[in-house]
Specification:
The chain is α+β, with helices and mostly antiparallel strands. Helix content is 21%, strand content 30%. Helix 4 runs parallel beside helix 5. It is globular, with a radius of gyration of 22 Å.
């Protein structure tokens, strides 16, 4: 009986694979990326047993497909490159502690830059084999003539704000999306971290995270809450893995896309020199954390990974410069020397909740610090949030000839635009 059931299961699986392969190859032939079901900004949804697949860790030669599920097994990804036949990749499952969820991930590797790949996830449940709708993505291309991306920050779980912002641009026009901190407000571990998974599912569907990667930069509010140390189970970057303990999590990363090089740094808590050592903000821990990452940043930038690309963009949740005083002094002092050597073209930040534009080379006084001044070496855009009145999206468009950044509010009103030739 057991042997007969096993043979039946294999035959069923092969039939499914043929069907999935045909669907995937057909999907590759279509023009444009597949879009996820639209999300609603209304009350939190009831979570299904499997969430929509999403993309992480983009590169010129590969992409990671992630999939969150309860009670799934035998998860695989069937995929095909335009013009080619279907392939299969096993997914690796990692249970997320304190929750009923497992994150499955499969790395689709060995791709060429700019490859268009269609894929489906299929998995086993008590009811049989289930497969997800086909999605498509495009690998990064370091030789592409341009790159476009959108940046959100300080949404603090406010679905209505980010939904309104998304009405004024097309996510499908973006190569990727950046979440620049405080997208989750003190992520709670209550009820198996239900609110975290509901919100992440909402973000994936709203932005089509199965078609373009959402790059996650940790904010200070994401270093708080009962689920904070387990957020690394949801995301993936070159050096971040689910098994890293809190003090060893590596949230910094970089990438090259078209004519731009981007480096993303984790500013951690918003502590400063005046923060008491016994504060919940743990200043001694974060000071050491930033110094550690300063070594990585120095070594990475010394290698000049941007090559001949004209644009170098620095992204962090807490700004290194801010006349309002809400900036990371420890990060600024530790990271500015290598950033100056690299010749950064643009800095993107959040944290303040009030949007700001700081021109390059213009000195300003720092509020609340008598006689203190600062002067950024490059333009700094600080996005706002989380209310409808404060929320912003920053749209960056880089070509070989110019770097353009536009900041819009939730009504679609342009707040600022600049172009660096």
């Amino acid at each position: 009986m057991v042997q007969t059931a096993h043979v039946t299961m294999l035959m069923k699986r092969r039939t499914i694979l043929k069907q999935v392969g045909a669907a995937v190859v057909g999907a590759v032939a279509n023009v444009g990326p597949a879009m996820a079901e639209p999300a609603s900004a209304d009350a939190p949804s009831r979570l299904p047993d499997a969430l929509a697949p999403y993309l992480q860790n983009p590169a010129a030669d590969g992409m990671t497909v992630c999939f969150l599920a309860r009670g799934a097994s035998g998860v695989r990804v069937c995929w095909a490159v335009a013009g080619g036949g279907p392939s299969e990749t096993d997914a690796t499952g990692v249970p997320i502690p304190g929750t009923p969820w497992t994150r499955w991930s499969a790395r689709i590797a060995g791709l060429k830059p700019g490859s268009v790949v269609s894929y489906e996830v299929f998995y086993q449940t008590d009811g049989g084999i289930v497969r997800t709708p086909a999605n498509r993505f495009k690998t990064l291309d370091p030789a592409a003539p341009g790159v476009r991306f959108a940046v959100f920050n300080d949404i603090h779980d406010q679905r209505a704000t980010i939904t309104a912002l998304c009405r004024h641009f097309k996510p499908e026009d973006c190569d990727f999306v950046v979440f620049n901190g405080d997208m989750f407000n003190d992520p709670s571990a209550a009820d198996g971290a239900r609110k975290v998974f509901e919100l992440w599912d909402f973000y994936i569907r709203l932005l089509g995270g199965g078609c373009r990667p959402i790059l996650f930069v940790r904010g200070n509010h994401e270093t708080r809450g009962g689920f904070k140390d387990r957020l690394n189970h949801l995301f993936q970057s070159p050096d971040l893995t689910p098994d890293q303990p809190p003090a060893e999590q590596l949230w910094r990363f970089d990438l090259t896309a078209g004519p731009a090089y981007l480096v993303f740094m984790d500013t951690g808590e918003d502590d400063g020199p005046e923060t008491p050592e016994d504060s919940y903000k743990a200043p001694k821990f974060w000071q050491a954390y930033r110094r550690r990452d300063a070594g990585w940043l120095r070594d990475r930038l010394a290698a000049k990974p941007w090559g001949t690309r004209p644009w170098r963009i620095f992204v962090s949740h807490i700004p290194l410069h801010n006349p309002a005083g809400w900036f990371s002094i420890g990060s600024r002092d530790a990271w500015l020397p290598p950033l100056r050597e690299a010749g950064i073209s643009l800095m993107l930040a959040g944290h303040d909740h009030a949007w700001k534009v700081l021109p390059a080379g213009k000195e300003f006084s720092i509020a609340g610090k008598s006689g203190a001044t600062d002067k950024p070496d490059c333009p700094v855009l600080i996005g706002g949030g989380p209310s409808m009145k404060e929320g912003t999206v920053i749209l960056v468009d880089a070509t070989r000839d110019k770097l353009t950044a536009r900041m819009l509010d939730a009504s679609g009103k342009p707040l600022h635009e600049f172009t660096t030739p």
